[in-house]
Each structure stands twice: as structure tokens, then as C-alpha cells.
Write a structure and sequence with these properties.
Layout: E1 18-21, H1 28-36, H2 41-50, E2 52-57, E3 60-65, H3 67-85, H4 92-99, H5 108-117, E4 126-127, E5 132-133, H6 138-149, E6 152-156, H7 163-176, E7 182-187, H8 203-221, H9 224-232, E8 236-240, E9 252-256, H10 264-271, E10 279-284, H11 298-306, E11 312-316, H12 326-341
Parallel strand pairs: 6-10, 6-11, 7-8, 7-9, 9-10
Antiparallel strand pairs: 1-3, 2-3, 4-5
Helix pairs in contact: 1-3, 2-4, 3-5, 6-7, 7-8, 10-11
Length: 342
């Protein structure tokens, strides 16, 4: 018979199970089903991302694993439960966003508090015709707050962090609320390292491929017929940056996307279009400049020149704020690490 060796006397015991108990209400069963997800897929995602194990016993969930991960998992479970109590669905991106919330707190407890605060009373929401938009990370939350409070806001960071999506959502929300009369969305028509040649069709046909990401965002927030009507009435405009010259944009919500591809002169031209009653958002990724070699990015210049100007906000994102596929965040981090070594 094999004899199992005894653990050394000074070995640390594993952290005890952390117990999360939910109130035994008449809706408990439905809430827990939504919380755990089909075939417990929500619990499985939390287990995978936080390296914990979650067991379920009636209205009690037990969390096993590293002590800090246990605290974080408990915060996520409470936040998700409050979400289903409010009648909201849970998507994989919601869980991923909660887990990757800003961990700038000095201890795990303060970070857990931040995570649960996102879903308490007074939550930050953007209401559109098709859905309610909620920031998924602390950086996104700060960004949306800044756009609502300032007449000019910059969103700077890598792809997939929701810079443009949230900016358009804020614009649609303010438009539907009567705070602005129109929405104007623009991008520099710069090819991303490819020569697309002469595209067929009229001017709209030629520039629409560059503007498609802006159409995609609007389609998420407005029904197709309403969006078509607003475009026809010019209450929503989507146009290349070059078309902004000479205009004064009053009582409008204006977004310049991919601003890293605007030249210094184009950026100055665009910023000085701001008229009475308008809001303007500039979004860009400094790592994806497609301008010809030797041409300075207007986004970098604007960032340096306008820092500290009252009424102008700067919001920054990192790989932690990526809300696309989780692998995108890892790709961005790998490229950042490679750039740091060169």
C-alpha cells in the first residue's frame, strides 16, 4: 500500500472557500439561471479568466482559488446578479469587461468595489432606439462622462476599445434627447497601406467604403428606416474630412474618427469648425498612422497643443479596455511589447 507523503509543516494551507449567498426570493431560480447562463457558461467564463473554481449549491455559490481571485470573482458575481435583477441580459463581453476593469486601486477590496459600482444605482447609460449602451470598463466610463461634460473630447487608444462606438452612441443619445439638431460623422479618406484604385460610381459610392465603420455604428443604434430618413434629410451626415472645409457646424454632435490620419492643417481646420451649441469628439490610435512618411499626424500635434485647455478632455485607453474578442487585447499587448524592445 502506497504511503502518501505528509505536506511540510510550514506549507501554506489553500485559502478557504469564499461563499456568495444570494437572497432566497421568489425570483431566485430565474435570476440564478440568468446569472449562471446556459449550461453554466457564465460561470465557466469567470472560472477560466480568473483561474478559480465555482460550485453551486442552491442559492449559494462557493469560490475556490487564489484569495485575490476569489474576491474579484465575488465582485463580478454580485455585479452580474444586480444586472439580471434589473432585467438585463448578460453577454460574454459584459463579463470580460467587468473582469478587466481598471485595477488601479491599492488593494483588491477597492478594485472589487469599483467593479460593483458600475452596476449600482446611478449607472451610466446611453439610450438609443435599438438598445441601451453601458460602458464596460472604467476607462470607457470616464470617457463617456467626459464627452457629456465637455464641448470637445479626445479618445485615444488602440483598436477595439470602443472609442468611436461610444462617441456615436453619445451623439445618438443627445440627438434623440433634443440636445443637438444633427449628427455629423467624418473620417480622413486615407488608404491603409493599400492602393484601392479608381472606385466606380458617384462621389458617395467612392467614399462610402471609407465611412462604413460609421454606418455600422449607427445601424446598431437606429432602425434602418429611421436612419435612412435622417440621412436623406441631412440630419445625419457622414462625409470625408476634406468635405468639412468652409463649414460652421452649429447645434451638432460632430465626430472625427481615425484622426491619426489627419494632417496638422486638416486637424486645425476641423477643430475650428465647432459652432454654437455643438459638441465635438476626436478619436484615434497613434499606433496606426497611415499618412505618407514624413507627414506629421494632426492628432499628435493637437494632443500636445490642447493639453490643459479648459473645456477640452483627453481620455486614454489601453489593451485592458478592448471589448472585442479577448485575443485582440493579447495581440495589442504583444505588438506593444515588440515596439518597446526596438
Amino acid at each position: 500500500m502506497a504511503i502518501m507523503p505528509l505536506p511540510p509543516l510550514n506549507a501554506e494551507a489553500p485559502p478557504p472557500e469564499r461563499v456568495v449567498e444570494f437572497p432566497d426570493t421568489q425570483n431566485l431560480n430565474r435570476y440564478l439561471i440568468d446569472l449562471c447562463g446556459e449550461f453554466d457558461r457564465n460561470l465557466a467564463q469567470i472560472e477560466h479568466q480568473l483561474a478559480v473554481q465555482i460550485t453551486r449549491r442552491g442559492n449559494i455559490l462557493g469560490i475556490h482559488g487564489d484569495a485575490e481571485a476569489q474576491v474579484q470573482a465575488e465582485a463580478v458575481l454580485h455585479a452580474l446578479y444586480q444586472r439580471v435583477e434589473a432585467g438585463r441580459s448578460i453577454e460574454p463581453g459584459d463579463i470580460d469587461g467587468m473582469i478587466r476593469l481598471d485595477d488601479s486601486g491599492e488593494n483588491t477590496g477597492s478594485r472589487a468595489g469599483d467593479q460593483m459600482e458600475m452596476f449600482k444605482g446611478g449607472r451610466l447609460e446611453l439610450r438609443t432606439r435599438k438598445k441601451v449602451i453601458e460602458p464596460r470598463t472604467q476607462a470607457q466610463k470616464a470617457y463617456v462622462s467626459a464627452l457629456l461634460q465637455n464641448e470637445l473630447g479626445f479618445g485615444i487608444g488602440p483598436a477595439g476599445t470602443g472609442k468611436t462606438y461610444l462617441a456615436v452612441a453619445v451623439g445618438v443619445s443627445m440627438f434623440l434627447g433634443g440636445q443637438v439638431d444633427k449628427i455629423i460623422l467624418s473620417r480622413p479618406a486615407v488608404e491603409a497601406g493599400e492602393r484601392l484604385g479608381f472606385l466606380p460610381g458617384d462621389m458617395k459610392d467612392k467614399v462610402d467604403p471609407y465611412m462604413q465603420p460609421l454606418y455600422d455604428a449607427l445601424n446598431d443604434f437606429l432602425p434602418g428606416k429611421q436612419m435612412a430618413k435622417l440621412l436623406e434629410d441631412k440630419r445625419i451626415e457622414i462625409a470625408p474630412l476634406a468635405f468639412m472645409r468652409g463649414r460652421t457646424l452649429s447645434n451638432a454632435f460632430v465626430v472625427l474618427d481615425e484622426a491619426q490620419n489627419a494632417t496638422t492643417m486638416q486637424m486645425k481646420m476641423f477643430l475650428t469648425r465647432l459652432g454654437e451649441g455643438s459638441r465635438m469628439v476626436i478619436t484615434g490610435d497613434r499606433s496606426q498612422v497611415d499618412l505618407p512618411r514624413g507627414v506629421k499626424s494632426g492628432l499628435r500635434d493637437a494632443e500636445a497643443i490642447l493639453k490643459g485647455v479648459n473645456g477640452v478632455s483627453f481620455s486614454y485607453f489601453s489593451a485592458k479596455d478592448v471589448v472585442r474578442h479577448p485575443l485582440v487585447a493579447k495581440i495589442i499587448e504583444a505588438y506593444d511589447a515588440a515596439d518597446a524592445e526596438t
